[in-house]
Amino acid sequence: MRTIRLPEPPTPPVGMPEIFERGVYSVVRRAVVIGNGFAGAENQCVGLVRALGLSERQSLYRVIRPRGGINEWLRWLPVSLHKRLDFAIRWIFAGSRFSVVFRGQKPLSFLNGGTTGLSSILEADARQIATMARETFEKEGPLLVVASGWDTISVASSIRRLAPHNVFVVQIQHPRSNLNRFDLVVTPQHDYYSLTPSGQQEIPQFLKRWITPREPPSRNVVLTVGALHQADSVALRVAAARWHDEMAPLPKPLLIVNIGGPTRHVKYGTDLAKQLTAKLQNVLASCGSVRISFSRRTPLKVSSVISKEIGHHPKVYIWDGEEPNPHMGHLAWADAFVVTADSVSMLSEACGTGKPVYVIGSERCKWKFSAFHKVLRERGVVREFTGKEDISDSWSYPPLNDTMEAASRVREALAERGWTLHH
């Protein structure tokens, strides 16, 4: 198999100490991540902070919604209003037999960073973070704030409003309105699908007024192909060493199969599971080993079909979901991937390795997801999984490098403001 060389993080120039070059108040040395509890969103933030070289000085704050009971029906509300309603419901129904139905569970109390790799997580409070940024500015310099997810939009924009001279705010994923609330917005180009000729033709007329964005990307918008992530060349080398004893002895080629779950833009069930297992059966002869992973979104009926149909084959190993998660080891050691079409994050990580990536289910995608897969095919980074492949036949392409490219744009925007990153 041909070795793929991934882009290395940029090496900072050697020169005058930064304190003399630009002054103590213009050097960004720290970052705050505003998360929403979903790994797909938070990993994008942590990946960008990592690419900017601030991993050692990052903190994670999380927007925490009430959970359980009637709260699951209130998730469409702004988080601040949701919390006020939850408080009222708890007060009204306290001690009644309906309390469990209406109240559900208390907000989660996070004691560790989980997949983010951070040691502690605090609940996000825009006023508190803005105050911290102002009061520590003279000693610590500017604060980089990176947020992702719907619930983080109001918090991140409020931090910028309250401390405009002390923070630089990056919102990942399109906030849908008022982009001037942020210094930079990083979002996939397929988020603008509604403005393309195909989008104008496919989206029903009565829906167009409700679909955003309605304007082309402004100057503070950074467009990517896929999602940002943490799987850079350094992380993969670390993962390769960590998982060496388990994965190095596996017969080659090693095929990694990553399975997500249906979404409103990519609908499937046991039909796709049966289609996938049939095609995997056909390529087993050309595989040395196959390792299968399910995501948290994978329906039990889908995972059950796959486990029943192919799980007992001697070449196949199915991860049981217990820690440690082998995902980074899979990215490092795989010779090829099969990925379901629903997950932009899983596809972006696999396509960042430069190794063969086969997709199943892309014909089920609609609207912007369909546009995303079209771009991947046109760039030659994915192929449709037909079941006729010889997995030992390798092919390669320039790896997707969205995270590093976004980091470069952040550096440029900081420089325009007269700020620089800590080396």
Biggest sheet: strand arrangement: 4-3-2-5-6-7-8
Rg is 23 Å
Number of helices: 17
Tally the beta strands: 15
User: What best-fitting shape do the alpha-carbon axes yield?
Assistant: globular
| Major sheet characteristics | 7 strands, parallel
Secondary-structure content class? alpha/beta
Strand content: 15-25%
**Portion in helices:** 25-40%
Name the descriptors.
17 helices, 15 strands, globular, six-stranded parallel sheet, alpha/beta, seven-stranded parallel sheet
Provide an overview of this structure.
This is Mitochondrial fission protein ELM1. InterPro entries: Elm1-like. The protein is 36% helix and 15% strand. It is an alpha/beta fold and 423 residues long. The radius of gyration is 23 Å and the shape is globular.
